[in-house]
Design goal:
The chain has 15 helices and 16 strands. The protein has helices at residues 6-19, 26-42, 44-55, 59-86, 122-133, 147-160, 173-180, 193-203, 228-240, 260-274, 286-299, 347-356, 370-378, 414-420, 444-457, and strands at 88-90, 99-107, 110-114, 137-141, 166-168, 186-190, 209-213, 218-222, 250-256, 303-306, 318-321, 338-344, 362-366, 384-387, 408-409, 422-430. The strands form three sheets. The chain has a seven-stranded mixed beta sheet, with helices on both faces. Strands 5-4-3-6-7-15 form a six-stranded mixed beta sheet, with helices on both faces. A three-stranded antiparallel beta sheet has the order 1-2-16. The longest helix is centred in the N-terminal third of the chain and has 28 residues, at 59-86. InterPro entries: Ald_DH/histidinol_DH, Ald_DH_C, Ald_DH_CS_GLU, Ald_DH_N, Aldehyde_DH_dom, Aldehyde_DH_NAD(P).
Length: 458
């Protein structure tokens, strides 16, 4: 589906939705999810080939970061769908005594999913699993920056779903703009904060709800109680995973001065070991942009320390020592294998600096002191906090994942993803409500009952 004929397909999706406004049955949803699982399983080799061709992503990293999370989403949805669909019962309270209340999740309707280029397979199909589990009709727009993966996604979806259930729109920004002009009921977007603002603005005229999975500058705080070897290994893996091109990639490092030298030595060693297996850049603009950040930092007094030998075409992992706030690398989301390092003695200014910027998608903390960790959590605002690990929390099967402010809106994964594509409809049934006892005419008994009710609630 391209920009010239997306409207008829959307009309077909709307027509199918009108025939089944409550969404697909549980058995139909489960069958669709199982068909998707089988199609992915049959095409694993093609997934690896497509991602290798698009930006040099190795087969093991594809298995770990693209295939495994999708299989996990599928398994979670298939195992828990019955419980998710049942909804929940709510207590009545005094004023609604005698009523029975349930909240029942219903599909939002026709949904639009924008897939990104950095994890083009996982971050496109993961939300699709949630949308299908919730019973919606869907249009999927894969990223045009990874064309082989986009074409493969179109093949998988066409082989799995009727076009009046899930359709694919391929193309560039013009297709995205044409789609955003349509009256979707919910839009799920993964990408940059700048484009996320445009998506939200486009949704406003239709009053469509949105889930925005954005990014930002996720800081790392390494405290004096950190396990140096484990923290360095975890940080290096997080920084180089997908070539640093991840929304939850560790962006910059606040390092306690008391352990700075041994930690940096350990970190350099880990970066050097991992660099040969790095994923390549997604776009040709990536390399020049990384170099511009390095040049700017050097011109403003930073010491650059390149580490390791990555594959040809990749930016060499580089520590930017003595980083300062005016450097571009400390103002822009890096999205690459560069790591600004700021040494500190007092935690207060570090927390103040984090709070002075946009709210990050994730805040990473490495330390063994529980009180210090709790202080960092309590005195900062971020989409999530990860203690003594990086990146892996994104694939947590039951944890809501999402940002706040400039790093996103709403949550995904597991039941949170199911609810993102659902409207929780309250249904209240009157059995023997006490409210008629308070109706006019206002007699002495009514006054006494109202006073009694207020007294109980005050």
């Amino acid at each position: 589906m391209d920009s010239e004929h997306h409207a008829p397909t959307i009309a077909a999706l709307r027509a199918a939705l009108a025939l089944q406004p409550a969404g697909l049955t549980r058995s139909d949803r489960l069958a669709a999810l199982e068909r998707l699982r089988r199609e992915i399983r049959a095409r694993e080799a093609a997934v690896k080939s497509a991602l290798l061709a698009d930006f040099g992503k190795g087969p093991v990293e594809v298995q770990l970061t693209e295939l495994l999370p999708v299989y996990q989403e599928l398994r979670s949805a298939r195992r828990r769908l019955g419980r998710w669909m049942r909804g929940r019962r709510l207590g009545a309270g005094l004023t609604m005594a005698g009523t029975f209340t349930r909240v029942i999740p219903e599909p939002k309707g026709l949904c639009l999913i924008f897939g990104p280029s950095n994890y083009p397979f996982m971050l496109t199909l993961g939300p699709l699993v949630s949308a299908i589990a919730a019973g919606n009709r869907v249009v999927v727009k894969p990223s045009e920056l990874t064309p082989r993966t986009a074409a493969l996604l179109a093949e998988i979806i066409a082989a799995t779903f009727p076009e009046d259930h899930v359709a694919v729109a391929q193309g560039g920004p013009e297709v995205a703009e044409a789609l955003l002009a349509q009256p979707f009921d919910h839009i799920f977007f993964t990408g940059s904060t700048a484009v996320g603002r445009k998506v939200m603005a486009a949704a406003a005229p239709h009053l469509a709800s949105v889930t925005l999975e954005l990014g930002g500058k996720s800081p790392v705080i390494v405290g004096p109680g950190a396990d140096i070897a484990r923290a360095a290994r975890m940080l290096a893996w997080g920084k180089l995973s997908n070539g640093g091109q991840a929304c939850v990639s560790p962006d910059h490092l606040y390092l306690h001065r008391s352990i700075a030298q041994p930690f940096l030595a350990a970190l350099e060693g880990e970066l050097a070991r991992m660099a040969p297996d790095m994923t390549g850049p997604i776009t040709p603009r990536h390399g020049p942009r990384m170099q511009a950040l390095l040049d700017d930092a050097a011109a403003k007094g930073a010491t650059l320390r390149p580490v390791g030998q990555p594959p040809a075409g990749c930016t060499v992992p580089t520590l930017i020592l003595n980083a300062t706030a005016e450097m571009a690398a400390m103002r822009e989301e890096i999205f690459g294998p560069l790591l600004p390092v700021i040494e500190y003695d007092d935690l207060g200014p570090v927390l103040a600096a984090i709070n002075a910027g946009e709210k990050p998608l994730t805040l990473y903390v490495f330390d063994s002191d529980a009180a210090r960790i709790e202080r960092i959590r309590a005195e900062t605002r971020s989409g999530s906090v990860a203690v003594n690990l990086t990146m892996a929390h994104f694939a947590h099967p039951t944890m809501p994942f999402g940002g706040i402010g400039a790093s996103g809106q709403g949550a995904a994964h597991g039941e949170a993803g199911f609810l993102a594509f659902s409207h929780e409809k309250p249904v209240v049934v009157n059995r023997f409500s006490v409210l008629p006892l308070l109706f006019p005419p206002v007699t002495g008994r009514v006054r006494r009952l109202v006073s009694l009710l207020l007294g109980l609630l005050r």
